[in-house]
Amino acid sequence: MTATLDHTAAPLIRRPAGRPLRQLVVPYLYVLPAALFVAAFLLYPMVLTAWRSLTHFDGISDPTFAGLDNFRDLFADPHFLLSLRNTVIWTVAAVIFPVTLGLVFALAFSRVRWGGFFKTVIYLPATISAAAAGILFSFVFNYDNGILNMILRGIGLSGLASRWLFDVPTNTFAMIATYTWQQTGLNMMLFLVGLQGLPPEPIEAAKIEGCTGWNLVRRIILPMLMPYVVITTLLAIVNGFKVFDLIWVMTQGGPGRASETLAVTMYREGFILFKQGYSAAIAVVISVVALAFSYFYLRSVLEQEARQ
Q1: DSSP 219
Q2: What's the pLDDT score for residue 10?
């Protein structure tokens, strides 16, 4: 009987064999294409740009090491300082107008008749590219035969007709209006997702207590929606900070260089004036700021997921 017990207990204490090498390697093979893609098209360009920001390089001759000279020159360059100011204006406007309007439309059309139709109309501009939106509104703001000036002249307000894309700072405001038209729908959808995830009990309890209308929104809905407000705001800041295509299509940073942002200045310095080391320094500045806001954006997303 003892021998039988020993014989049956032996398999129970035997350790399982180690995993074959193939099973250890195969999961990494699935990840390898994505890792190579990231390394080739993200990490390598980032390292190369950081290195070139420390050199004088025209894209043709060999780069010469310059240390931090490019970064010192940036903050003594009036064009860079002007583009930095314009970028701040763009970033603030990208938060105030598209985010605010997106929130207003989400609250207004979330539970109304024909709400789906209005939400579709508002979201449609987000489905086209910024370059296409820029081309479209270049015709709208054209001085001679643009739709806006034609309407103003047709209703007897010819004095308000303006060279929208050639006068400073009117051209910046015109481009911000175009950007708002395109981005509002995307922000609205983000807020609609947040509204659908709100628990109904606090809202129903507040309505029973007589809290309705603006008081309901201000005291109950907005506090619960605040994580989505933070996420949408940080995302709008990142997108507004690096906007390029819409500006380039509508004004190319003109007249002169009066409406340039950092992204436009980076492109002009690198690919038109062939000062690629200087352009790389601007790219590093943009990347550092964008990464900082992206960090807070991702942290907000993870915190929101943790709450759920």
Answers
A1: I
A2: 47
Which of 26, 46, 25, 44 has its CA nearest to residue 36?
44
If phi > 0 it is left, if psi is from -120 to 50 it is alpha, else beta; for residue 39 that is alpha
Span 110-157, pLDDT tens digits: 877 788 888 899 999 999 999 999 999 999 999 888 899 999 988 988
Buried/exposed 9-44: b ≥16 CB within 10 Å, e otherwise: eeeeeeeeeeeeeeeeeeeeeeeeeeeeeeeeeeee
User: In which domain, by residue range, is 181 found?
Assistant: 64-307
**Cβ(68)–Cβ(55) under 8 Å?**
no
- pLDDT, position 231: 85
* Phi, psi (rounded to 5 degrees) for 15: -80, 145
**Residue 25, in any domain of the structure:** no
E-only strand ranges, 18-165: 55-56, 64-65
- Residue 1, pLDDT score: 43
Helix (H) or strand (E) holding 17: none
- The answer to whether residue 273 is domain-embedded is yes
Q: Measure the CA–CA gap between 67 and 55, rounded to whole angstroms.
A: 7
Judge if pTM exceeds 0.90.
no
Query: Is residue 30 domain-resident?
Result: no
- What token pair was written down for 226? 């605040």
Has residue 22 been placed in a domain? no
Structure tokens at 222: 């907005």
Q: Which residues of the chain have pLDDT under 50?
A: 1-5, 7-13, 15-16
Q: Determine the Cα–Cα distance for residues 308 and 304; give it in Å rounded to an integer.
A: 7
pLDDT at 268: 93
**Total number of domains constituting the chain:** 1
> What's the pLDDT at 279?
93
CA distance 179 to 240: 9
Domain at 274, CATH number: 1.10.3720.10
Output the CA–CA distances (angstroms, integers) from residue 35 to 47, 287, 298, in the order listed: 16, 21, 20
pLDDT at 17: 52
